[in-house]
Design goal:
eight-stranded parallel β-barrel; 349 residues
């Protein structure tokens, strides 16, 4: 029976343990969106994770939807990210970059006055994250069919840039109501062309992006992040089991290194079915404790588990869990505050 502290082969790389650091937006890149030394220090501190997946990183200026998040479209950003990859590798770690396009989860203030883009002109409910006073999400512009090759190319170039920055691989962000997820689910995708309607059509863009990214990296260094509950940013689908089962099976046929699924425990979970359909390394994510993660591995429901807040507050999380040591509490006001407080000041044992 595997434990969280056993090694795991994930595509082309071997993880020394099965504790994955989940992608976590921290808003420390500043207005330039160029990664910096503070970010490198933060990731280096957490290099004992079996695998680090970075915070979501925009592949194009039109894919931005939050203040101070990093990008991977420019030479300056590539150079900035090398500070992080060098620091993590010097500390013996492994790190994948998460490739991101927010689609409609944005506002013209982040896009030089331009309208956010989406599969269909349907606004999400709610307000733009962390903007005060509160501002409602605007109605996005539906992407024209002829624009979609450019979206795919942005992911391809982001993957190429990630290689230049020294990453060990990439994870495609297909979850949480962002662009690829918007194309997947029929609540946000009401297109009538070959990218809308049927499950195969709605999955088309995600799979074309995966193919483009694999062409840069090889399947053994590419993962995908999904969130089948549709519980973020006004998402939802009429048949999530069929939709995400199709996606998992198609990604499995392509031999992706792993599938990471954000899905809290509950009677309506799809995780076991998705793991079976994918057939490869399955990383479970959301709300896990050491005990529940151990149970998931023992039951064969996951091959590894990704932790978010526990890694924010405990840079040496694998060691603490192995020793049964007390855990630091997360400084929630510091999650997006900028600066070192609540970011790099958590103590190790």
């Amino acid at each position: 029976m595997p434990s969280l502290f056993d090694p795991l082969q994930v595509g082309d790389i071997t993880l020394p343990n099965r504790l994955v650091m989940a992608p976590l937006t921290r808003s420390r890149a500043g207005s330039s969106r160029v990664p910096n030394e503070l970010m490198a220090q933060y990731y280096r501190q957490r290099a004992t994770a079996g695998l680090i997946i970075t915070e979501a990183t925009s592949v194009t200026p039109m894919g931005v939807g939050y203040a101070d998040t990093p990008g991977i479209w420019s030479a300056e950003q590539v150079s900035g990210w090398t500070l992080t990859t060098r620091a993590v590798h010097e500390a013996g770690g492994r790190i994948f970059l998460q490739l991101w396009h927010v689609g409609r989860i944005s506002h013209p203030r982040f896009l030089d006055g331009r309208q956010p883009v989406a599969p269909s002109a349907i606004a999400p409910e709610g307000f733009v994250s962390l903007v005060r006073p509160q501002v409602a999400y605007p109605v996005p512009r539906a992407l024209a069919r002829e624009e979609l090759p450019g979206i795919i190319e942005a992911y391809r170039q982001g993957a190429r840039n990630a290689r230049a920055a020294g990453f060990d691989g990439v994870e495609i962000h297909g979850a949480n109501g962002y662009l690829l997820d918007q194309f997947l689910q029929d609540r946000s995708n009401q297109r009538t062309d070959e990218y809308g309607g049927s499950i195969a059509n709605r999955a088309r863009l995600m799979l074309e992006v995966a193919d483009a990214v694999m062409a840069e990296w090889g399947a053994g260094r590419v993962g995908m992040h999904l969130s089948p509950r549709g519980d973020a940013h006004t998402m939802g689908d009429s048949d999530p089991a069929a939709l995400f089962g199709h996606v998992a099976a198609q990604l499995g046929l392509r031999g992706l290194a792993f599938l990471c699924v954000r899905e809290h425990a509950g009677p309506d979970r799809l995780g076991p079915a998705l793991k079976a359909a994918f057939g490869g390394v399955y990383i479970a994510n959301e709300g896990f404790t050491f005990e529940s993660a151990t149970q998931a591995l023992a039951a064969g429901e996951a091959d590894a588990v990704a932790f978010g807040r526990l890694f924010i507050a405990n840079p040496d999380l694998p060691r603490r869990l192995k020793l049964g040591a007390p855990l630091n509490e997360p400084d929630i006001p510091g999650f997006y505050a900028g600066g070192a407080k609540g970011y790099t000041d958590y103590p190790s044992l």
